[in-house]
Design brief:
It contains four helices and five strands, in the order E-E-H-E-H-E-H-H-E. It is an alpha/beta fold.
């Protein structure tokens, strides 16, 4: 389930539950809809992600790239333990660490 609101020109979204092959299409459609909102940036709280597979990781990469194409920075905030495990498994830590998109803290 994805909830979102716009605060001070930033779209703040939160994902709760699974990000798997079974939910990726619906999740993608909701995320792209929220990304189209009139906001300068897009931040996603991932602390509520309970399960994630490669489809969920691909979705986050796709949303990040789509944000770049729209000129909206996308920040992935507070990844859950499940998501941190997948990032480590796929050795994506360096990719995320080199950019401002994945942080273990909350929005400043």
């Amino acid at each position: 389930m994805i909830t979102a609101q716009i605060v001070d020109g930033v779209c703040l979204a939160r994902i709760d539950g699974e990000m798997t092959i079974y939910t990726a299409l619906a999740c993608r459609d909701q995320m792209l809809e929220h990304l189209q909102q009139p906001c300068a940036a897009f931040e996603i709280d991932l602390s509520g992600v309970t399960e994630v597979d490669s489809a969920g990781v691909q979705l986050l990469i796709q949303i990040q790239r789509h944000g770049v194409a729209l000129g909206k920075p996308v920040r992935l905030l507070t990844p859950s333990a499940a998501l941190q495990d997948m990032i480590a498994l796929y050795r994506l830590g360096a990719d995320f660490d080199d950019s401002p998109t994945l942080t273990s803290g909350s929005r400043p």
